[in-house]
Design brief:
Strand order of the largest sheet: 1-4-3-2
Order of helices and strands: HEEEEHHH
Distance between the termini: 53 Å
Radius of gyration: 21 Å
Structural class: alpha+beta
Helix content: 40-55%
Largest sheet: 4 strands, antiparallel
Strand content: 5-15%
Length: 175
Amino acid sequence: MADTALGSVEFVQGIRRLKLHAITGVRYDRQLVDGRQLFKLHRPGQQVRLEGLSFPVTIAWFYLKRDGDSKRSKRYVLSTRPLKACTIVWWGQHRWQIEGFFKTAKYRFGLHRFGQQTLLGLYRWLVLSLVAFILAHWGYLSMHTSTFPNWVVAARTVFEAALPQIAIALLIQQI
């Protein structure tokens, strides 16, 4: 599975050369060899030939609803292996759940402000990402739910539980 940014001709051809298969997001306006664009397709699961590729790929799509937004956006997914549309959509939707976790970890814990230009910066980012995940997972487990984690709520739970303890520890240290 790969992000839409990796849905380039070079990436897909490289995957094919390695005799691997990929399911990746693809832009809605990608050109087919007959001149049409993806958004003009009417049936998910069609095998089509994209401009620049010498082999057919299977295209499907689904509607993604963002948290806090009532609108749904159409997301296109490409498979280098001929699969049913429902299988491609299932994998494509799960990729978005993973993406949602990373966005939450990045913005809820301030990791988007962290410099990653040096090797030390990268190590720090990895350690902070692991700590953020462990804390959010701890918050999720403390909510006693069996549904897929809502990372925003889990992060808020950790924040509300940990902040008073840290503030008290700092006050006691100063006293």
